[in-house]
Amino acid sequence: MNSRHLTSVYVVDDLPAMRERLCALVGEVSNTEVVGTAGTPADAIAGVLEMRPDCVLLDYQLEGGTGLDVLRAVHPKAPEVVFVVLTNNALPQYRRACFAAGAQHFLDKATEFDQVRDLIRQAGATRN
Predict the structure, then answer these.
(1) pLDDT for the residue numbered 3
(2) For residue 75, is it within any domain?
(3) For 60-105, what is each residue's pLDDT tens digit?
(4) For the whole prediction, is pTM greater than 0.85?
(5) CATH code at 20?
(6) What is the SS3 assignment for 38-53?
(7) N or C: which end of the chain has fewer CB within 10 A?
(8) CA distance from start to end of the chain
(9) Number of H helices and number of E strands within the chain?
């Protein structure tokens, strides 16, 4: 990875405590920075399209909609952005819908959360 380029990460979760946890996790990964956060689909769509981060950590369940709404709005306009969907409800139909809408990863927060750091690193390496 080019050390001059920081991997940019946008964090989307409707729970402030989880946004803080995810931002702290991003801070643990070298050469990364959080470039924005959002708690609603509308704020996430606007923020991601403006910032064009390397990676979006995207909660599935959001206040006023879902991460799927964000994917459907953003992916066609910014296909280079890596989306990591995080959920407490890892139902197969949610997984299929997210992949169909452009997500590259779909993780169960309860059992796969430890993979987030590696996926952030991979997203940065892919974009450099």
Answers:
(1) 44
(2) yes
(3) 999 999 999 999 999 999 999 999 999 999 999 999 999 999 999 9
(4) yes
(5) 3.40.50.2300
(6) ECCHHHHHHHHHHHCC
(7) C
(8) 6
(9) 6, 7
pLDDT at 2 over 50: no
Query: Could you list the residue range(s) of the whole structural domain that residue 72 is in?
Result: 7-89+103-122
Counting every residue written for the chain, the total comes to 128
How large a percentage of the chain has pLDDT more than 70? 95
21 occurs within a structural domain: yes
> In 3-state terms, what secondary structure has residue 103?
coil
Tally the domains of the chain: 1
> How far is CA 23 from each of CA 16, 116, 123, rounded to the nearest angstrom?
10, 12, 16
Q: What is the spatial distance between Cα 70 and Cα 4, in angstroms, rounded to a whole number?
A: 30
